[in-house]
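Inputs:
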Amino acid sequence: MLLIHCPYCDEQRAEIEFAYAGEAHIARPPDPSALSDEDWSRYLFIRSNPRGRHHERWRHIHGCGRFFNAVRDTVTDTFEATYKAGEPRR
Amino acid sequence: MSGFRLDRGGRVDRTRPIGFSFDGATYRGFAGDTLASALLANGVMLFGRSFKYHRPRGLLGAGSEEPNALISVSRGPGRHTPNQRATAIEIYEGLTATSQNRWPSLKTDLGAINDRLGMFLPAGFYNKTFMWPRSFWDKLYEPLIRRAAGLGEAPSEEDPDHYGATYAHCDLLIVGAGPAGIDAALEASGTAKRVILIDEQDEPGGGALDDPALWSWLSESLKDLAAAPNVTMLSRTTAFGYYHDNFIGAVERLTDHSAEIGSGPREKLWRIRAAEVILAQGAIERPLVFAGNDVPGVMLASAARTYLHRYAVAVGRSVAVMAAQDSGWRDAFAHARAGVNIAAIVEVRETVTPALLDEAQALGIAVQLGHSVIEVHGRHAVKDVTTARNDGTAVNRLTCDALLMAGGWTPSVHLWSHSKGTLAWDEALGAYVPDRANENVRCVGACSGTWNFGSGMVIDRLPTPRNQAKIKAFVDFQNDVTAKDIDLAVREGFKSIEHIKRYTTTGMATDQGKTSNLNGLQIASKALGRHATEVGLTTFRPPYTPQTFGALAGHAQGALFQPIRKTPIDGWAEENGAVFELVAQWRRARYFPQAGEDMHAAVNRECRAVRSAVGIFDASTLGKIEVVGPDAAEFLNRMYTNPWKALEPGRCRYGLLLREDGFITDDGVSARLARDRFHLTTTTGGAARVLNMMEDYLQTEWPELDVWLTSTTEQWAVIALQGPLARQVLEPLVEGIDLSPEAFPHMAIREGTICGVPTRLFRVSFTGELGFEINVPAAYGRALWERLMDVGAAFGITPYGTEAMHVLRAEKGFVIVGQDTDGTVTPDDAGLDWAVGKKKSDFVGKRSLSRPDIVAEGRKQLVGLLTDDPAVVLEEGAQIVADPDQPIPMTMIGHVTSAYWSEALGRSIALALVAGGRQRMGEVLYVPMPGTVISTKVSGTVFYDPEGARLNG
Ligand SMILES: [Zn+2]
């Protein structure tokens, strides 16, 4: 079970307090109707799935309730960093 | 009969004799014995039959690495535990143990015919033989194979034991209380660190238990540790898995070793988070690979030393040693000094250090240098062995009743590997040792590979003048894999150890190859002509040793499996005979049977009451979210398909929620209480998911919106009053709300009081009847319910459950998200296009509604089905076809999502998702069922009161 640092609580807590929320930094297009079917499909379905550094979202669902971003190594499962939503990609 | 108890020595308590049984025969041992040591002391050498060939097997080891002696222990109904290692079972008075995988008995096992048919059971045998025809697998091949080559039987009764679980946190966790682990604990005992020291055996000490010279050090050290307030010592506790961030799972066995089961838990699961971990798991000796190395009486030299010193049991009266390592010589010397005759030391190396030769000579032990055992005689026990010079000459027989193997040492890196620490090859050890840590962990003692194992020779298999392709030289004892099986796999083209492992099943037994992985690797490496490091190492995965399901999950069974959520009115329902069902962890009243009623009769009566008078329903489980803030309407407008900004305070709206991919995820009626305040409802099961989704958009997509979301599901008790007389029941109890149809129309909300309690009163209907949903603070829920029952008695008020609710809504064609939709249904598919705001430029999922697949013809659409025989109720989930005569596999064009007996219509009704359904109105479709085909007509989804006249009472 992972230990995850919540950047809002500034605490390292056990994984059971958190919920995974998919890849990070995939902003909802401001005007979806302007997108082609292909571009919209890419937004909906295509994810990077890297071996190594992965930018992903977590929610401290059984804590402060905030969504935040993280960089996790998908090989070692270690967190390189967690940071608040809205902060630039690390 | 070979093994025997020595007159003195050992750590067993000779003042406490213990009686037990094995395969029906009774024996005596001493307190401190394992089943293995006690049986060995009684001369028993035969412990089991091997997995594939049913070969007689004895003990290979003395600890948790034992691959052969798998035993079932029975202690009453439901208390039958198979596949335990005899070396890890502590005896107690009355212990009842049986061997496995033999029929009719251990000595006479008919399955042993497999051994003679060995040429027909090569590597990959199952894959090659039982592939065809496929249909034979489930019914014929698999049961046959399981019976013939199996482990013990699982009990069929419910487990009567209970199990505990706990979390623990510490600064330092030490796994293994051998000399290295104890030293580490002693070092930390003087610090401020919280230390946990765990050990799998009944007695701490590890390797020190096998060495009388260390016993006084051991008892002093344990005294010091017991006195250290910061050290917690857990015995009989196996660290079975090492997980992320120094999270270790361990199982403590509490009652399996005692004659009285007692009232406490049988086992306890420890979930330990440690700042630092020290692994001191020791090393496991490797067998040598030669013909007959599995005959009972052939065992690891270190195991024999354990039996000798710890249990005072000699494994034979005349013991031969087959050594490739100095440690084997030392084990031979230990036996000789204890008075056990050593027949000879056979040493595969041509030379050893003179000190060993001198000591052998001093003890009068014959030595054969540059020799190997090439054959072991005897089937149920060793009778004698044949040795030969490594060049194949000088063949001679050596009389002995036990043969010890010293093939080298394998550091126990299992937990280290779980933690994703890397490994490095140690050429001298012929084994992998810990290299770089991935967690805050280090290995000490033998498992680090730094222990002094003495010198030796790493050899994949012993030389023999016999044809290696014709002899059974075992590598994996538990899965019956021989050296020639690995040779064959390599000849057939397997190159990676992961593939060779799966093809031959080496290391895939319940012992995970503790004694076999390295020999298997070295044989494969030799056969491939590549260095061991190029062949690789198989991955270790938890558990280190097999654990019971009870230990891992038994603390969460029955009522503790998951929390049961109960509404404020649940107690009333229980007292009034409700039959309950679980809905997303909520316990909901399904129906309220009266004397003599079955479910059908009760539901019909409840439905009639709602349609003709008034029914009362506990809707408290509905998910509720309070949406507050200046941008509340804007937020809901973006989330839901419908327009919200124009909704007047005091009015309600049916909201449809999509995922961004355009599929329905939830729905519910929501009310606007004020410009900046909404009372949302969600489905019972969707409450948490919807709140999470809304929080996600609010926090990460539209943080500029000034809105607050609060779950209020459990703050409100909700009582639905439905039926033409609902208003009359309600009217006298309500203050401050005009209930007249003009003042309080359908889909409106009013705030006031009911019976003096503040209420949010909805005029809504999920039945098609005049209806109200009364929200009051949860604590008043039951009192209000009882008051309504009193007042309503004169009107025939009838409590109804979820089953009648389902029927009533289906009669009106109201969908239940998750039942009539399945995550691939769009608003149009469900016939809910009217709920989509056509003029809205955007909402969650809108863009997807114009994707090519979503607008394509022929999508499954929700329709009604009316069976030709009105008495037949379709089965939910049943598949629908257009042509009932089509041969199997038939083209399935949809499935039944809801089906009930409609009391109001006096016939069955159903909802279904059918391809191109709305173009099929009136068409006859078919539902094939076992033994029959049901014909049915496609209809609209609203079966009852299509004009909606009854909403007005
Ligand atoms: Zn937090």
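The longest strand of chain B covers residues 267-279. Flag for discussion at group meeting.
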